[in-house]
Design goal:
Shape: globular
Helix content: 40-55%
Distance between the termini: 92 Å
Bound molecules: ligand C2E, magnesium ion
Largest sheet: 8 strands, mixed, barrel
Length: 287
């Protein structure tokens, strides 16, 4: 009797577990199909020079409009892709789309940078730099206009390999940014050790600087430190004018956030670039 109860309990547990994994497997199968049938797309969020207000770069962010479930956020399906073989084709897809779009903007006379997110997985993949180099060649985009965003967790998961991969990427002329800076560990030590080009201060610090004095101190001193080390800084999560004002003292700072624009289509970025260009044209005439 007890053995039977135990068996029932286990099989109930197994069934539940199966349901979960069937769901996961289904979503994974759907993601695989989505990659093959071109059901994913890429949106772009402006990164704005806080002094001039001009768009100097855009970050490519992947989107999935699931046929049955509607839009699924990257926070849900990127981890799924990371735990399967799908993260490489996903990154390849985003990189290819983003570089094709960047080549178009360059051809139109806009000298933007393009930021693309890498997954932690890629930092232990010694073939990544060659793949990135091939993608740049395919679209004839100068390496210096591509910024690859990596997270602190990505670096820490295999620090030695990540070091090799990051150095190789920078050797081909690509820039490397640390994304979500401040949310991981030992930030300072590898800011010193690693040669990186850009630091993105995580939005959890930036969002509250106008009413949390501690966050303000952390953000201000992080920006100062990075700039003093010759590292470009992007403040993430700028949601309102108040935040812009608090950060107005820095000579060279880039902002990203809903205050400027959320992630939008390439066509909407083009419109933004056109209106920035005509605004600067009229201000030149005013002089
Ligand atoms: P992330 O790289 O830190 O990207 C910034 C995220 O913050 C984006 O969310 C963006 O929409 C959101 N965001 C931007 N401005 C604001 C703001 O002012 N306030 C708030 N609350 N949020 C803001 P999204 O697009 O949902 O992406 C979430 C994360 O998913 C990304 O964080 C990145 O880690 C990952 N991800 C997105 N696209 C890709 C991709 O193509 N490849 C990889 N490996 N990961 C990606
Ligand atoms: Mg990012
Ligand atoms: Mg980020
Ligand atoms: Mg993030």
């Amino acid at each position: 009797y007890h053995a039977k109860r135990e068996r029932d309990r286990i099989s109930t547990f197994d069934r539940k577990y199966d349901v979960n994994s069937v769901e996961r497997l289904q979503l994974l199968a759907d993601l695989r199909a989505a990659l093959e049938d071109d059901q994913l797309h890429v949106v772009y969020q402006p990164q704005v020079d806080m002094r001039s207000g001009r768009t100097v770069a855009v970050e490519a962010l992947v989107r999935w409009n699931h046929v049955g479930r509607g839009p699924i956020g990257p926070d849900h399906f990127v981890p799924l892709a990371e735990n399967s073989g799908l993260i490489l084709p996903l990154t390849t897809y985003v990189l290819d789309q983003a570089l094709a779009q960047l080549a178009q903007w360059h051809a139109d006379g806009y000298d933007l940078r393009m930021a693309v997110n890498l997954s932690a997985r890629h930092l232990s993949d010694l073939s990544l730099p060659q793949q990135v180099s091939n993608a740049l060649d395919a679209h004839a985009v100068p390496p210096s206009r591509l910024v690859l965003e990596v997270t602190e967790t990505g670096i820490l998961s295999d620090a030695v390999r990540a070091d090799v991969v990051i150095r190789a990427l920078r050797a081909i002329g690509v820039e490397v940014a640390i994304d979500d800076y401040g949310t991981g560990n030992a930030s300072l030590s590898y800011l010193r050790r690693l040669e990186i080009d850009e630091l993105k201060v995580d939005r959890s610090f930036v969002m509250n600087i106008h009413d949390d004095p501690h966050d303000l101190i952390i953000v201000n001193s992080t920006i100062e430190l990075a700039l003093a080390l010759g590292v470009r800084v992007v403040a993430e999560g700028i949601e309102d004018e108040r935040t812009v004002k608090v950060l107005a003292g820095f000579d060279s700072l880039i902002g990203q956030g809903y205050h400027f624009s959320g992630p939008v289509s390439a066509a909407q970025i083009s419109e933004r670039l056109i209106s920035e260009r005509s605004a600067s044209g009229s201000s030149l005439r005013d002089c």
